[in-house]
Specification:
Blueprint: E1 8-9, E2 18-22, E3 35-37, E4 40-47, E5 51-54, E6 57-60, E7 65-69, E8 74-77, E9 83-89, H1 91-100, E10 118-120, H2 123-140, H3 147-168, H4 177-193, H5 200-207, H6 211-222, H7 226-244, H8 249-255, H9 261-272, H10 276-283
Helix pairs in contact: 1-3, 2-3, 4-5, 7-10
């Protein structure tokens, strides 16, 4: 299977849970080209200017806008005249936060299917970030940083941004523990398997429920079925690779598990009203 050939930005040292970098003076050799991250990144813009691209979509870097960029997403800085903070954190720290606050997992801003990767802080949110960041920096710079303390501080910032995101985007809060578990597990399984497993039956079998029940839960809270969710994720990845990857269209087709390029072309045109070739021509980074 061909690789997408997109370089990986390695900033967070191995075995380091967290790293905080000022945006004002920081420029990485890969910043201005499409690259993937080996870490999660909470990006707080304190003085906005220009834009950045996440998974092939350009977003303005407005003042007090907070972005969450997940491991593996494709990132590109389109303007380096900005100020703020990058908080890089590892999978280990992310999992520690989810263990402390399981309601955050696959919800709101942390949902892999979220329609936008940012939220604009209000006055209360700005105050939280201004108060918590110095504590996070102090603990990061200690001789032996406490991962639980780092997780507590960082989770306060994530929860603040996520609560605002949920309220602003009218995200349904799932009250049933069973339904919540099904949705989280289905989305996690999808992210791990969408390139090779594109049938609802696979996901329902993994969850030990019927396809009908899985679809009913997703329909209730998202208005879509598991099939719709799979198609949406495949379309998103198709757009990302067409815009950012050096793979040709045939390679992208097989990389995403499509049987042949003709079927991939029909799939893409059905949802985007254009062909993969035309999309690449107008969106290539």
């Amino acid at each position: 299977m061909p690789k997408d050939k997109i370089p990986k930005q390695l900033i967070l040292p191995e075995r380091q849970a967290l790293k905080i970098i000022s945006l004002k003076s920081y420029i990485h050799e890969l910043s201005e080209v499409p690259h993937r991250h080996d870490h999660y990144q909470l990006l707080w813009i304190t003085k906005g200017h220009g834009s950045q691209s996440i998974d092939g979509i350009s977003y303005p870097m407005q003042t007090n806008r907070v972005f969450l960029i997940r491991t593996g997403q494709i990132h590109k800085m389109e303007d380096l005249q900005r100020d703020g903070w990058m908080i890089l954190f590892s999978d280990v720290l992310y999992n520690a936060i989810i263990k402390l606050f399981p309601a955050l997992e696959q919800h709101g801003l942390l949902d892999v299917t979220a329609p936008q990767p940012f939220i604009d802080l209000d006055e209360k949110g700005i105050l939280v970030y201004k108060n918590i960041l110095p504590l996070l920096i102090e603990e990061q710079n200690s001789i032996t940083p406490d991962i639980k303390l780092l997780a507590t501080y960082l989770s306060s910032m994530l929860i603040t941004a996520n609560n605002m995101y949920v309220a602003e985007n009218n995200v349904n809060t799932i009250q049933s523990n069973e339904a919540k578990s099904i949705v989280k597990q289905a989305k996690t399984l999808l992210e791990q398997n969408f390139k090779t497993q594109q049938q609802t039956q696979f996901y329902s079998d993994k969850l030990n429920i019927s396809p009908r029940k899985l679809n009913a839960v997703l329909q209730t809270f998202y208005g879509i079925t598991m099939h719709d969710l799979i198609q949406k994720r495949l379309l998103m990845e198709s757009c990302i690779l067409l815009a950012s990857s050096s793979m040709n269209i045939k390679e992208i087709c097989y990389h995403l598990g499509f049987a042949d390029p003709a079927y991939f072309n029909r799939f893409f045109k059905k949802y985007m009203s254009t062909t993969p070739a035309n999309y690449r021509e107008h969106h290539k980074l």
